[in-house]
Amino acid sequence: SDPLPDTAQGILAEDRAHLFYSWSAQRQLSPMPVARALGSYFWDYDGNRYLDFASQFVHVNIGHQHPKVVAAIQRQAERLCTVSPAFGNDQRARAARLIAERAPGDLDRVLFTNGGTDAVEHAVRMARLVTGRPKVLAAYRSYHGGSHLTLHMTGDPRRWPIDTGAAGVVHFFGPYLYRSAFHARTEPEEAQRALAHLEQVIALEGPGTVAAVILEPVVGTNGVLVPPEGYLAGVRELCDRHGILLIADEVMAGFGRTGRWFAVQNWDVVPDLITFAKGVNSGYVPLGGVLMGPRVFDAFADRPYPGGLTYSGHPLACAAAVAAITAMSEEGIVENAAHLGAEVLGPGLRELSERHPVIGEVRGLGVFWALELVRDRDTREMLPPLGAPGGPPGPMDELAAACRKRGLWPFVHTNRIHVVPPCTVTEREIREGLDILDEALSVIGSHYR
Ligand code: PLP
């Protein structure tokens, strides 16, 4: 066949003629072809280097092109590229063991999926079948995936264009002290009132109709919302009281992002099901899964589980997971995320907020942080407001462009910059990124104060 194009223009000629992009207005796109990547950086075809403070879609936890993961995929490709999930496979079994060994409590079995969306689909299906109940309670300000069910569970504007209502999906408010739905002024107040609210939702929906409560232990795309002390334990207790399963959606928060293997381990809470993807193998080959304990496993010990996927536990993806998890352990990558988050990244971002009044709040842990930007610190008016995706360019586009021009690739969402570098990021790279953010915030700060 023709040789591959080796310039951005050549790639874009084919790309613009034949590709359909997810989440996008097709004619308004100007995608940047990426030529290569290494560690915390990637390069375009003009040789410009970008510090990846987004970890792509918050999934390259181990950094780009980790040599041990690349080599494991190469070895596996030579030996056995694919085999159906009905057969046993060494990489799949090893990946499941490594994940189970790091999981909280009694969670020790894994159903592998292709990504996060289908992990959430299966977790909800399991909860419904185990309890015999129809409903799932999901939080406003959440993202759970792009399929029909999971997008209906999602509590953000991405749901709006497709929302026809999904049977059995009910939304509740989680804690978010900066914009408290409960008029709380302190963290303990927010935790206690958010729990009282959830308790009422359960009571009024009918506890006997609720199969599961699903939440992101640290809410990801909707703002890096770190739960106040006692909230997750309180949800666990409510679920136990009513025979409801607790699903922790750790697709974004899991595998090192919060400085622990799983985010729930920051609060010693053990859910019934954990959904994961992204960081499990940093997306070198697509992989997700559901981690479950005996309550769920035993329900399918003697009756078939109704569901599966052709690529469930794909050998290339699982070989990448084995290598990624092993390297993360051997190289102290999760500890690196915890340490640099607490000692360098968090303090650095707080320092930025002292200089830039456009920053309303700084929050996060590990390598999972957000700057929430406001027009006015007193009123907390969002810059820009919550809205459906699309619309004319505004201050956040200007901020992103200012970052990119200086060699930083940011994660921008609504009125926030999420600072989510790979877990392998170094102190020098963090300082480089903070300096660029400082300059970019000065550029927009002068217009939007
Ligand atoms: N759940 C959460 C918390 C996520 O952040 C995401 C993706 O960002 C998903 C589910 C969906 O995962 P995927 O895009 O791999 O299907």
From TrEMBL:
Pfam families, sorted: Aminotran_3 (PF00202)
Molecular function as annotated in GO: pyridoxal phosphate binding; transaminase activity
Any one GO cellular component localisation term in the record: cytosol
PROSITE patterns in the record: AA_TRANSFER_CLASS_3 (PS00600)
Gene3D superfamilies documented for this protein: Aspartate Aminotransferase, domain 1 (3.90.1150.10), Type I PLP-dependent aspartate aminotransferase-like (Major domain) (3.40.640.10)
The keyword Iron-sulfur is assigned to this record: no
Cofactor: pyridoxal 5'-phosphate
Keyword annotations: Aminotransferase, Pyridoxal phosphate, Transferase
Family, similarity comment: Belongs to the class-III pyridoxal-phosphate-dependent aminotransferase family.
PANTHER family: AMINOTRANSFERASE, AMINOTRANSFERASE CLASS-III
Protein name, UniProt field: Aspartate aminotransferase family protein
UniProt source species: Verrucosispora sioxanthis
